[in-house]
Fold these 2 entries.
Entry 1:
Amino acid sequence: MLSAWIDGYVRAWNSNDPDEIGALFTDDALYFTEPYASPWRGRAEIVEGWLAARDEPGDATFEWRPLVEASDLAVVTGTTVYREPPRTYSNLWVIRLDADGRCREFVEWYMKQPSDG
């Protein structure tokens, strides 16, 4: 279930299609762009916030691996590499899924990696 959800997330990240974004989340989901930030609340607000902060399709690659995977909770680490301007982020995502595989709570931590130059 986790792999399918992250595959859908990456597809939505690259398409910025509101229907693909919305399909990932429950009606009352919470999306925290930072652990202590006010969350986007509900599917409509998540889609709106996502599109307001969207990346250009194909501008980033994302690799991930699970740290914890239970029936309703997953913690994953990831690496996001942006092409323009070049930068790399380390990510930690906490994802709470419902029985249908949609996210009901998403919290992300991210840290820019130092550049080599």
Note: Residues 19 and 89 are 27 Å apart (CA to CA).
Entry 2:
Amino acid sequence: MKLLAVDTSQLQAAVCLLDGGRVLAGHTGSVDVAHSEGLLAHVDALLRGASLRLDQLDGFAAGVGPGSFTGIRIGCATIKALAQVLDKPVVAFSSLRATALSLDAGMRATTSWRS
């Protein structure tokens, strides 16, 4: 199941393509560009890089915080609009949990010890 996930809860937006539990591609935005101005450009760049179209996705995911209310609102509204037009499902995820999981994966990849 191919999903497009966005997280705009923080200063830097993140977009990611997932297939099952595997990350296909990821892209982070600039802190100098507002999410409302750059999010769709990031999505477009990610999809082009993966040679995918929106209609080839099975669903969408949006980070719902904690974080900036305005940022979360932009990400959720964008994902909801794309999903509604394409008649695809949407799932919400915890931005904090996603960050923690990415840090844990990074620690496992760079260390050989466990605490």
Note: Helices lie at 35-49, 69-86, 95-110.
